[in-house]
Write a structure and sequence with these properties.
The protein is built from eight helices and eight strands. By secondary structure, the chain is of the alpha/beta class. Strands 3-2-4-1-5-8 form a six-stranded mixed beta sheet, sandwiched between helices. Strand 2, helix 2 and strand 3 form a beta-alpha-beta unit. The longest helix is centred in the last third of the chain and has 25 residues.
Length: about 230
Amino acid sequence: HRDLHSFPTRRSSDLVSNHAGVIPYDGAMVRAALLLEHHQPRHARALVLTGLFSMPGASWLVRRTGNTLAHNADALRLLESDELVLVFPEGAKGTGKPYADRYRLRRFGRGGFVEMALRTGSPIIPISIVGSEEIHPNLAEIPALAKLLGMPYAPVTPTFPWLGPAGLIPLPSSWIIEFHPPLQLSAEERKAAGDPAAMLAISDRVRDVIQAGVYRNLKRRKSVFALS
């Protein structure tokens, strides 16, 4: 975990990260980093897709670990309460992308995270994650199964469905999580809240920072399974 020394210790922040891995362990890893590595441990509240709240097992886990719905009203409420909000703008398109497209960020949607930062005056903290793409490499998909289960995708990985439930165990991989310096939006930029073009421009800036960090740390990581 890199550069946590610049992480805000008290005020609200809009944490924005790349997203991958079929099963989104990256959210848990970011939250663990803040709790275990920061000199003043903080709890981040991840915004989770609504569909997970309708799945019996996943719904219980998501709620018990302090996550909330990926909804602007929830994000605004948390930021106004000086909470840390963790956002994955790529959504299911990020977690379900093919292994051939690993570490290439998808588009960041309509910039909802930018609007929340602008309205609350919260800094945006880009986060680059390396390691998530290898835990469940998505080699192919089974659309019929995804439709049957009501899921956005049903992947074929090196271990699933071949090993049954054991195929859900993540493969070991070396992770690097980089917390970039906070992006504090100016008063002039805050006036642009609600302007789609302005929010898209800021969203693209954040995405570029994250993508550059991902590429830099891929070069730094010596091996997928390296221990350092």
